[in-house]
Amino acid sequence: MKGLHAEYLVDRDGKRKAVVISVSEWEQILDALEEFEDIRAYDDAGQNPSEAIPFEQAVSEIDEGIVD
Fold first, then answer.
1. How far is residue 36's CA from residue 31's CA, in Å, rounded to a whole number?
2. What are the pLDDT digits (tens) for 37-56?
C-alpha cells in the first residue's frame, strides 16, 4: 500500500513486536480488505454457479440472516 507510514514497537532485543499506524491508514486497510473479500466472493460465485432465485427471496434471506 502506497504511503503507509508505519512505526514499530520493539522488544529489548530490537525485534519488531507491533505496528502503529494512523486511524486513517487503518481505515484504508479495512476498505481494501473489504473490497478484496467482495472480489473473492464474486470469483467464488462464478466458479460455483447455483440456481437463480427471485430477487425478493434473496432480499428476504439476507434480512433474515440466512445469507451473509
1. 9
2. 999 888 887 787 777 888 89
